[in-house]
């Protein structure tokens, strides 16, 4: 019962502060890792939008498609963000997502740049 009260108190504190549970946690509690489950569409041309699925995305997250940072990144939920594909030559590249708190995830050859 005490653990439930502590968790509810923690959730209320996070909600009132406008922060995620990952940002407000008991001392010693593990921070969940950022995960990446896929890009839709898996191939696109520069200027198009892609949706990236995963978990633990935070406002202010940044996205790289290959070695180029995506533009107009919008975190819609903790599990989904949308980004505009930057200029790049055609081919397969890795995807990396980095949260403002430094947690990041990447996967090699998971996106294909198409010819514009």
What's the overall geometry?
A: elongated
Rg for CA atoms: 17 Å
Unreliable stretches covering 5 or more consecutive residues: none
Tally of separate helices: 1
What is the helix fraction of residues, given as a range? Answer: 10-25%
Span of the ends, CA to CA: 58 Å
CATH topology heading of the largest domain = Immunoglobulin-like
- What is the level 1 CATH name of the largest domain? Mainly Beta
* Class per helix and strand makeup: mainly beta
Major β-sheet strand ordering:
2-9-8-4-5
Instruction: Assess the beta-strand content as a share of residues.
Output: 35-45%
The CATH architecture of the largest domain = Sandwich
Mean pLDDT: 87
Please report the total strand number as a whole number: 9
Largest sheet: 5 strands, mixed
Give the H and E element order: HEEEEEEEEE
How many domains would you count in the coordinates? 2
CATH superfamily grouping of the largest domain:
Immunoglobulins
